[in-house]
Design a protein that fits this description.
Blueprint lengths: L26 H8 L1 H23 L7 H8 L12 H40 L2 H18 L7 H22 L2 H17 L3 H14 L1 H6 L4 H23 L7 H21 L1 H11 L10 E3 L5 H17 L22 H9 L2 E3 L3 H25 L14 H16 L5 E4 L1 H10 L5 E2 L13 H7 L1 E6 L9 H6 L9 E3 L10 E8 L5
Parallel strand pairs: 3-4, 3-5
Antiparallel strand pairs: 1-2, 5-7, 6-7
Helix pairs in contact: 1-2, 2-4, 2-5, 2-15, 3-4, 3-17, 4-5, 4-6, 5-11, 5-12, 5-14, 5-15, 6-7, 7-10, 12-15, 13-14, 16-17
C-alpha cells in the first residue's frame, strides 16, 4: 500500500529550527536542503562531460573489453557465447553514428540514468534531500567499481536494474497497471542485456511471494501484465534460444573457477565501497565535529520499505553466486548493477535525521571524488610513458594499426580485409580501426553459431596478429597451433602518440591469402 510520504518535492522545510543553532551553512548543505535536484543534475552533467571528453581526447584505443564489444556488435548476431545482444548492438549503433565519442557518451548516459532513477526512488522513500545524499554516495562507489567509459553489458544493465526496482516498488505500492507494464519492459530489456538479469527477476518474484502484501499483488492483473510485457520484449530472442541454444553441464574445474570469480567479485564489491566509506566517515565522523552540525531531514520509513532497500542492496551479490553452477563466461559476474542500492541503504540506515558534522570538508571530498579520477586518468595517459615503461592499452595506436594492416592486405590481394585473428585484444583493435571494418575470428565461439569459421578464413583470407616478443616476430605457440604453417612477416613497429620512454609497440603478423576463384 502507499507509504503516504510527502518528502518527494524539493522543499526548504527541513531548514526550520536549524539555522538558529548554526553560525554558518556551507553551500553544499544549503543545496542539499533547498535544491537537491539541482545538485544531482549538476553531478550528472559533470559526470557526462568529464567521462565523455577525457577518453575521447586522451585515449588512442578503447579501454578494456570495449574493442571486443564493438567487434561482437558489428556482426549484429542475436546471441553469442558472450550473452544476449542488446549491449553489443547499441555499442555498434553508437559507433556508427558518432564514432568512439558516441560510445563514450552512451556509457555515461547509462550511468546518469541510474543516478536519476535512484534519486526518483529515494524521493518516494526518504525525501529529496536524503535521496540526493544517496546519489552522492553512489559517486564514491563508482570511482572504485565502475569503469564507466568501458561500455558493455555491465554498464547497460545498471540503469535497467535500477528501473526494475523503481517500477516494482511503484507497482506494488500504487497499484497502477502502467508501472507493471514498465517493469515487464525493463525486465525484458535487462534479460536482453545479460543473463545476470535472472538474478534480479528471480529475487523480485521470491520477494513478492515471501510477503503478504506481495502475494496479494497476484490477485490483481499487475504481475500478469509484467509477464506479458516481458515475453513480448523477449519473444524474438526466445525463438532464437529455442532454435540455436543448447545446455551443457559444466565440469567441476569450471564450477570451482566460477566460485573463485564470484568470491573475488564479493571482495571487489566490498573494496569498491571505499569511496562511500570516506564520504560517510567525513560526514558523520566524531573527530573535530561542529558543536551544532546541520541536519538533513528525511521522512519516516515503514518496515516494508526498509526491508525492500536492504534486501536489494545486499542479497543480489550473494545470489549472483548461482552463476557459478551454469555459466561458462566470467563476464556474467557483473559488479556495476549490484551497487545501485548501496547509497540508498546507507541513507536508510542513518535514520530520519542525518547530521553532517564536517559540512565543508564533505563538500570538497565529494567534488574531489567526482572530478579528480577523470583528471588523474588524463594525467596518467600523458605523463606515465615518460616515467614508467608500462604498455597502457588505451595508449596503443589503434588507428595506425588498423590502417597499416588493412592497406597491406588490400595491396597484396586486391581485396579489402575481411577477417582478423590472433591475439584477441590486438585483433579486436585492428578489426575496429581498419577501414573495411573486418570481422573478428573468435575460436571460442560454439560450433553451432560462429560468425567467422576456419572455412571463411581459407576462402576470404585473413590477417593474424600478435604481440612480438623478439626481432623475428615468431608467432606464439597457441597461434601456431591454430594456424599451422604461417608465413610470418617482418614485425611492424608502431609509435604511440605519447611515446615517451616506452619502446615501440612491435606487432608480429602473418597473412593468409584468400582462395583464388
Amino acid at each position: 500500500m502507499p507509504t503516504g510520504r510527502t518528502g518527494g518535492a524539493d522543499r526548504p522545510t527541513s531548514r526550520s529550527g536549524l539555522r538558529g543553532a548554526m553560525h554558518s551553512t556551507s553551500l553544499f548543505v544549503e543545496l542539499l536542503r533547498t535544491r537537491p535536484s539541482l545538485l544531482v543534475g549538476a553531478m550528472a552533467a559533470l559526470q557526462v562531460v568529464l567521462w565523455t571528453l577525457v577518453p575521447t581526447l586522451f585515449y588512442t584505443a578503447p579501454p578494456g573489453q570495449l574493442p571486443l564489444v564493438l567487434a561482437i556488435g558489428h556482426e549484429f548476431q542475436f546471441g553469442t557465447e558472450f550473452g544476449p545482444p542488446l549491449a553489443f548492438w547499441l555499442a555498434e549503433i553508437a559507433y556508427r553514428l558518432a564514432g568512439m565519442f558516441g560510445v563514450y557518451l552512451l556509457s555515461q548516459l547509462c550511468i546518469v540514468t541510474a543516478y536519476g532513477v535512484v534519486f526518483a526512488l529515494g524521493r518516494i522513500l526518504v525525501g529529496a534531500p536524503q535521496a540526493a545524499i544517496a546519489v552522492m554516495l553512489m559517486a564514491g562507489i563508482a570511482v572504485f567499481s565502475v569503469p564507466t567509459p568501458e561500455f558493455g553489458p555491465a554498464i547497460l544493465a545498471t540503469p535497467l536494474w535500477a528501473l526494475c526496482l523503481y517500477h516494482y516498488w511503484l507497482g506494488t505500492e500504487r497499484g497502477n497497471a502502467i508501472y507493471w507494464v514498465a517493469l515487464g519492459v525493463d525486465a525484458g530489456l535487462l534479460f536482453l542485456t545479460t543473463y545476470a538479469g535472472l538474478v534480479l527477476i528471480g529475487l523480485l518474484l521470491l520477494y513478492s511471494l515471501a510477503t503478504r502484501h506481495g502475494r496479494a499483488q497476484f490477485e490483481t492483473i499487475g504481475p500478469w501484465l509484467t509477464g506479458v510485457a516481458m515475453v513480448a520484449v523477449l519473444f524474438p530472442y526466445l525463438i532464437w534460444l529455442d532454435l540455436s541454444a543448447h545446455i551443457a553441464l559444466l565440469d567441476l574445474a569450471t564450477i570451482v573457477s566460477n566460485v573463485r570469480i564470484w568470491l573475488w567479485l564479493l571482495l571487489t564489491l566490498v573494496l569498491s565501497h571505499a569511496g562511500l566509506a570516506i564520504l560517510v566517515g567525513l560526514g558523520a565522523g566524531p573527530f573535530g565535529s561542529e558543536a551544532a552540525p546541520p541536519e538533513i531531514l528525511g521522512t519516516a520509513l515503514p518496515a516494508s520499505a526498509r526491508r525492500f532497500v536492504y534486501v536489494f542492496a545486499f542479497l543480489p551479490a550473494l545470489v549472483m553466486g548461482l552463476f557459478a553452477l551454469f555459466t561458462r563466461r566470467p563476464e556474467n559476474f557483473l559488479a556495476a548493477p549490484l551497487v545501485v542500492m548501496s547509497g540508498l541503504a546507507v541513507v536508510v540506515a542513518a535514520g530520519e535525521r542525518i547530521r553532517i558534522r564536517h559540512q565543508y570538508i564533505i563538500g570538497y571530498a565529494w567534488a574531489a571524488l567526482l572530478v579528480l579520477p577523470a583528471l588523474l586518468v588524463a594525467l596518467v595517459v600523458v605523463v606515465q610513458p615518460w616515467i614508467f615503461a608500462i604498455d597502457l592499452s588505451v595508449g596503443r595506436p589503434a588507428d595506425d594499426m588498423g590502417q597499416f594492416f588493412g592497406d597491406s592486405y588490400a595491396r597484396r590481394t586486391g581485396r579489402p580485409l575481411e577477417i582478423v585473428a590472433g591475439d584477441q585484444a590486438l585483433a579486436a583493435l585492428v578489426a575496429l580501426a581498419a577501414p573495411s571494418r573486418p570481422s573478428l575470428f573468435m575460436p571460442s565461439a560454439p560450433a553451432d553459431r560462429p560468425r567467422v569459421t576456419r572455412a571463411d578464413i581459407e576462402t576470404k583470407g585473413a590477417v593474424i596478429v600478435w604481440l612480438a616478443t623478439d626481432s623475428a616476430g615468431r608467432e606464439p605457440p597457441d597461434i601456431a597451433r591454430q594456424f599451422p604453417g604461417l608465413a610470418v612477416e617482418v614485425p611492424r613497429a608502431f609509435e604511440r602518440r605519447g611515446q615517451g620512454r616506452m619502446p615501440l609497440l612491435r606487432i608480429g603478423w602473418a597473412m593468409i591469402r584468400p582462395r583464388a576463384p
